[in-house]
Amino acid sequence: MNHGSTSRRQAERRTPPNAVPTVSVYDFALRCAIRACLEQTGQQRPEPKKDWTDRHSVHLGVSDMLSNITEKFSDDSRTDRLTREIVRGLMRRLDDIRKGRDTSKPEYQDTRFLSVVTQIKGELQGYRFRPSGTVNDLVILFTKTSEVTLKRSSAMPAAVYEELNRYTSRFVELVILTLQEDAPSSATPELMEKLRGFLGPTKSARNNSDRRLSARPSIPSLVPSYGSIEYLEVFPMVKTVQKLFQVTDVEHSRKLRELHSICTESALLIDMKKYITNVHTGQSFPGKRDDFPDKQVFDNWQMREVKQLTEMMKSMMLLNPTLAISANSETDVGSSNLLSSFRNNIYSGSEVSLMKNEMSQGAYTYIPSDPRAYFRLLMNMAIDYNINVTPDKEKAKTSVLSHQEDELLRECWKTWRLSEAFRAVLYLEAINTRYVHNEVEFEDVKDAARSLDKVIKESGINNWANKDRENLIRAFDELNQTLLHKLTEALSEYWQISPEWVGDLVSSLDRIYDNPAYIQGHRGPLLALDTLTEVVEGAAVVRWRSIGKIEDDNYEDGGITGLIGLAEMLIKEFVSLTKRRFKTPISGVLSVPSVVMGRQMPFFALQMENWAYLPEAKNAPIEVIFKLYHKVLGLKRLYDQYGPQQKKSLFKVESWFLQHVKRWLETTNESTPGWVESAVKHDKFTTVNETVPHSSSVVDLFTMFHEAVDFVQKLQWPNELQRCRFLTALSKVIGHALDKYTAILEEMIIEDIYPTLGHEENSSATVAFFSKARLQLTGNHHSRKNDGVPPDFTPQLCVKINDIEAARSKLDKLYQIIDVDDISYYMRENDIPAADIPEQTGFMYSIKIVRAENLQPLDNNGLSDPYAIMEINGKQIARTRTVYETLNPRWDQVFDIWLNEKTVDVVAIVYDEDMIGADEECGGVWFKLSPEYYDDYQQHDIVLNLLPQGRLVLRVSMEGEKNDIQFWFSKAFRTLRRVENDSASLIVDRMSRFMRACLSRKTLDKLLQRDRSFFRFSRSVKSIDPTLQDCEDAIAPLLDYLERNLKILNDNLSEGNMRHVILKIWKEILLSLEGVLLPPLSEHPSEMKPLDDYEFHCVYKWLELLKVLFNGGEDEDGVQLETLENAQYYSLLAINVAYNLETEELIGIYNTALNNQMELKLQGGAKADRSKSVYHSRHTAKQQKADKKAASIDMPSSETVLRILRMRSGKRVRDFLRSEFDKRNKPSTSSGPAANITATKDEALQPTTLVPPIIPDRMITPSDEKMMPLP
Predict the structure, then answer these.
(1) 600, 537 Cβ separation under 8 angstroms
(2) Where is the composition biased (Basic residues) (predicted)?
């Protein structure tokens, strides 16, 4: 049994039980092939011979040619519409022929042809401006006009139609030429191809046809004539029919002979007439009113069918008028011939009787009784043949059907007057059926669906017949079931299917569900997708079992390695599902990633829950723990974004990993001291590069800080409050690290400035006693050796100071990165305060006695040997070391005090140490220690005004901390700023002794050559007026020292630190010069004598020389003059006004200055705004700008006047000094210590500046606080 019979049986099995036999389909398919052959031979037939023996062939050729063109031109697209360009161009050419200007063709000189041209030109006159109709109408008009003209002049039909053929060809040539030259936009390939059909075949086409025919083995030497049986046998479509139905050559040739006389033009014309009659009368075929959804659709179909067939019939009868006469006779002959031939055919008796029954009922020649059933069987046979019989190399690449099979189906569909909708739906059904049995690919289904979509778009489903709509819905139902089945198979292994495959299935389903006709008959078609959810859920469980083995196979380390591998695989798979395989839900309903996550994530969460409580998990390596954490966090993000809409709280990240974050914080805190020590140890304290003034230690330290902060930030902890707590705890670690770092640098800075200070502090009491005794007995000779030129500063010292500033700057950037303000605000708004906090009963204070200023001179040398003590309730709690020969001692000693009382009054007293007799009191002051002032646990620099004179600077803090990120940053900022200020002060302190030694009365005596007598301590006075050069030479060591060290400082300190230090040095120089002019402030007359004019002028020359040095000399590239000439500078100049005045005048100036000060105080200066607590401020780079007031040179200050009066003698002066100091020591507003002890906080703590506004002692910060003095 061959493949052909197999395909035929498959087609019959797919045909309903009441379907027609295959033999009938073969018969009518062959008739359509014969018709196509006759139609094509009519177009390819060469010009007839002169003997006119074959009239029928001439008529048939012209008729078929115009019939085909008419049918094609009748398409709704109307690509052959007349335009103005076509009409005008054709009229011009016709006019040239009519007037004899164009005689290129013999016909152009024929009077009959010219007569037709004249008539056509007249008809075209009315279309010049508003053309209507088509090129087809124009050709038919010319043909009709030519036929009438030729029949008038000739009675021979053969001659008429030969001339008509030639005339029509010439006219079509003119039309083609007009289109090409005058209307190229209208010369579409389709239109040009149709017009060339009137011209007959080209020579090459005839030669090719002859060669093909001559190549047949059966007739190697003869070329079959057009329209003959032999020609029909070799016609491709006829051979396709034979091939599909597997008919032998003998049987096929016999059948062709039987049908040759039946399948004529007359039979086709009669079929058209019958068809039109049936359309008008509403017969079951081709269709009646009930077959359409409404009357409008039926009327439109009826009108379209009648119009198309009428135009075809007109063309046929126009070209062959004898058709109207001979149609009935030919039909009778054909019928009788067909019936008589049944006696010798190959068919069975039942098949013959069926065909006789069709003919007896007046059936069509070309159209079977049930065209739909015939076409269905024919299509199935064509598809099966191509699938089962046709070799793969001969199959069409883009379609199931070959080109020949498709042409046959098109010819039958067109001849049998079937709708495009029927053909497209039938093809989709057939392909879908074979796709179910895996006989075709899904691409074939898509191709069939696209063809159907095209038909739906072009014709509109609302214009379809009812049966076509029913067939469409049935086809969609079958296709929907097929696609759902395929999709179910795919989703059962969702993790490995191709996304393109899923996309094709989903798009095909969407095409069905978007069809209006399908929606009308299926309420809620997407409900069918609900069953797929269960499929995906089951597949997700199966998949989990396979990937869950990873965790089971890695349990050596408590399962954490397995969990990491499991999480990695899940992330990879979920990303593939969401980003590649299922980017969008299927038909907008079924989200595969959501269903899969909804099933698998609870299993994973259970695994994590079990692991979190294992003993091994608590001690697992931190690095591995957080690797797992980031994998879990990635899964959580995917679940939150793509998981089910009704999500469960599966990922308890806080409970799983909170303890490990705390472990990391504890480990980091323990490692911090090592970080700091390592950074300092490996630092050579050289600048990183030419543009960066700090060293590597601060870079290394903050690199570690940033790494720690990045670690917390990258956690992206889901609980915001806990994240804020992590950063707060980390800020504490950073604060402690910076405290240690600044403490180490501060110690190194002190060691660089005072290398032996630590040794002296640790010396025994016995050694200290003997050193002090030797100092006083030898007349301070020990101290004088320290007045030599001190060692120069080193670049390493400057770099260390720069490191402090860089740390403060980097801390400010870190503050911004962490968003400290936002974190603090969030915690204050959301954090739950701890309940039942026990009241604090003990308080630890840290008090650093920093320094004193402007103390009373109690020794004969005009200085003192001060030390400080603190007492509470008469009991001494602290004592500093003694600093010899100074009125501005610096101790920098820290004392820790534990108090059980909440508020305590403390008295601080500065004494002058004496070897013989009791130590004298330089001054004292009361202040309070209370949480009311220090409960922010920050360091506070407080300045206490001593009585009778001087100031004491303390640094007080209460031990404790706050769980607030701003607290730790603020504390770190204060610490860095304090060390930065103290370092600058230490530099000046180291330089001050040498500056005071150079800028002294001893240097003046040398300059003026005045020697002091050893016995009378008197000076021999010489009147020498030194030059400016002499004055410069006198302080040359100081100038050289300053020039050398200022260069070192300027080259190595940062710009901010250099500005800070240089202003402090300038202030110290002004104070030193003031000390040459005036004795210290005291209530006792001084032994210091006023300077004479020579000495006075030398001091001011030194002032100008030093101002020039600081200003930068001739280049003036140093400190600006506005900065140098500050209030303190003008106060020094003001001494000149009152220096030589009489005592009474000085007393008057003093009273005036005192009254001015009182008025200023009564007017009220702006108190410091404490509404913004230091606790809530960083103050990293802010500098309070001092008011620049030009001091009045004509009016020295009251203290300056008192210091001038000390150099005067007489009872009046002694009484006045004693009286004024009594007023200072016992102010009228005071009522004893209790008055000041009970002062309010705002009165007790007030910001103050320690220096004149232009040259501040340090950067003004809110940490400066002042304690009101107590008598």
Answers:
(1) no
(2) 1173-1182
* Closest C-alpha to 56, from 64, 203, 310, 312: 64
What pLDDT does residue 14 have? Answer: 52
- Round to whole Å and give the CA distance between 400 and 431: 8
How far is C-alpha 222 from the geometric centre of its chain's CA atoms?
A: 79
For 640-696, write each residue's pLDDT tens digit: 888 887 766 788 888 888 999 998 999 999 999 998 999 999 988 898 888 888 999
CB 1200 within 8 A of CB 1207: no
Q: Is 1148 helix (H, G, I), strand (E, B) or coil?
A: helix
CA distance linking residue 898 with residue 846, whole number of Å: 9
Cα separation, 143 vs 158, whole angstroms: 16
- Number of Cβ atoms within 10 Å of the Cβ of 759: 9
CA pair distance 191, 193, nearest whole angstrom: 5
DSSP 274: H
Placement of tokens 């009991």 in the chain: 875
User: Mean per-residue pLDDT for 209-230?
Assistant: 49
Task: Give every CB contact of residue 210 below 8 A, 6+ residues apart in sequence.
Answer: 223
- Percentage of the chain beyond pLDDT 70 is 77
To which residue do tokens 């409900």 refer? 527
Structure tokens at 707: 């790494």
Rounded Cα gap, residues 69 and 318, in angstroms? 13
In the chain, the amino acid numbered 905 is D
- 């199931």: which residue's tokens? 400
Q: Which residue spans within 394-493 are E strands per DSSP? A: none
Q: DSSP code of 1163?
A: H
Q: Is the dihedral of CA 998, 1002, 1004, 1006 positive or negative?
A: negative
Q: How far apart are CA 597 and CA 583, in angstroms?
A: 15
Residue position matching structure tokens 């979920």: 574
SS3 per-residue string spanning 595-656: HHHHHHHHHHHHHHHHHHCCHHHHCCCHHHHHHHHHHHHHHHHHHHHHCCCCCCCCCCHHHH
495: confidence class by pLDDT, cuts 50, 70, 90: confident
Q: What is the largest CA-CA distance in the chain?
A: 175
Q: Where are the alpha helices (DSSP H) in 754-819?
A: 757-761, 765-777, 781-784, 795-818
Instruction: Give the CA distances from residue 755 to residues 93, 752, 768, in Å, rounded to whole numbers and listed in that order.
Output: 121, 6, 18
For residue 257, how many other CB atoms are within 10 A of its CB?
Answer: 12
Contact 241, 30 (CB under 8 A): yes
Give the closest residue to 745 by CA, choosing from 753, 777, 359, 412: 753
Strand 904-912 vs strand 843-853: parallel, antiparallel, or unpaired? unpaired
Check whether 453 has a pLDDT greater than 80. yes
**Contact present, 1232 and 909 (Cβ < 8 Å):** no
Report the residue count for the chain.
1271
CB distance 870 to 845 below 8 Å: no
What are the distances in angstroms from CA 1040 to CA 503, 790, 1107? 88, 12, 14
**Amino acid code (one letter) for 706:** H
Q: How far apart are the first and last CA of the chain?
A: 134
Q: Give per-residue pLDDT as tens, 803-859.
A: 999 999 999 999 999 999 998 888 888 877 655 556 777 788 889 898 898 888 888
Phi–psi pair at 945, nearest 5 degrees? -80, 115
Q: How many Cα neighbours within 13 Å face the side chain of 122?
A: 7
Give mean pLDDT, residues 1224-1250.
Answer: 40
Burial of 296 (0-12, 13-18, 19+ CB in 10 A): exposed
- Higher-pLDDT residue of 834 and 319 is 319
Q: How far is Cα 425 from Cα 431, in angstroms, rounded to an integer?
A: 10
Q: Which two tokens stand for residue 491?
A: 């989703």
Q: How far is CA 206 from CA 54, 165, 176, 540, 1000, in A?
A: 19, 19, 22, 68, 133
